User: Which sequence fits this backbone?
């Protein structure tokens, strides 16, 4: 028996999948609209207790058609596991499409049309699930949540809220000169504080004592993406802890148009 995510056949998600915005709302110069929108990951069956807001999809997500499945997703899956949340979550990104270029993410943080469609998702999820906690990954997600909370439906949300550092904060901080070990330690200290705030507030799927992160991210701190979070038939290596998708190209145009998918060596039959 294999588990899979059934997708968007039922309302209110069917209408959301029918009516997604395109390049009139997400300018193609600043978003990779040609890879299509990627909507969510997690439960759409009314059982989610945690709502997660990520940033934007990357290469792995473009292939699996679900968000937060690459490095960021596996790190954050580990965070949910520490809360005992193994399946009762739903994740939505700030942006439907992958951000292209340095400034696009910030430049469109409060675009009304982008926000309006995102609010439809947040309204649908909060109206149909007993959400106990909203977790924003990074600053753009925090802006997305605070913008939503100024709307009439967003204002009715009274559960817990945590804005935490984005799971790939250490990678971006290191690429702009911060010591990588210090950047990772900063992420984990920040996440430990959020775990303290949420453990006991959110009803777990599996009751487990809280174990904090150390100052480095251990292999055991990564979560595995559940089979039931991806469309039917996706191979197991797409949920493995190794990178298997990367943008490639010798010019910006070629790189934007190309994702190399390669089965990790230890996952091949021969
Ligand atoms: N992938 C996503 O889908 N969202 C993020 O925030 C990061 C990576």
Assistant:
């Amino acid at each position: 028996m294999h588990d899979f995510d059934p997708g968007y056949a039922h309302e209110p998600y069917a209408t959301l999948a029918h009516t997604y915005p395109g390049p009139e709302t997400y300018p193609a110069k600043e978003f990779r609209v040609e890879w299509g929108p990627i909507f969510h990951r997690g439960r759409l069956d009314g059982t989610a207790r945690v709502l997660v807001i990520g940033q934007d999809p990357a290469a792995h997500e473009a292939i699996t058609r679900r968000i937060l499945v690459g490095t960021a997703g596996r790190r954050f899956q580990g965070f949910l596991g520490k809360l005992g949340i193994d399946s009762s979550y739903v994740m939505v990104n700030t942006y439907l499409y992958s951000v292209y270029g340095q400034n696009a993410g910030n430049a469109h943080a409060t675009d009304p049309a982008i926000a309006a469609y995102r609010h439809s998702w947040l309204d649908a999820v909060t109206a149909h699930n007993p959400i106990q906690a909203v977790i924003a990954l990074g600053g753009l997600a925090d802006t997305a949540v605070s913008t939503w909370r100024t709307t009439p439906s967003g204002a009715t949300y009274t559960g817990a809220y945590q804005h935490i550092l984005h799971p790939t904060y250490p990678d971006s901080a290191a690429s702009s000169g911060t010591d990588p070990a210090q950047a990772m330690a900063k992420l984990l200290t920040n996440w430990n504080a959020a775990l303290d705030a949420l453990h006991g507030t959110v009803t777990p799927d599996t009751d487990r004592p809280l174990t904090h992160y150390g100052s480095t991210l251990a292999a055991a701190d990564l979560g595995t993406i559940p089979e039931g979070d991806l469309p039917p038939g996706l191979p197991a290596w797409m949920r493995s802890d190794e990178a298997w998708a990367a943008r490639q190209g010798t010019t910006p145009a070629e790189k934007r148009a190309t994702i190399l998918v390669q089965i990790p060596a230890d996952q091949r039959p021969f």
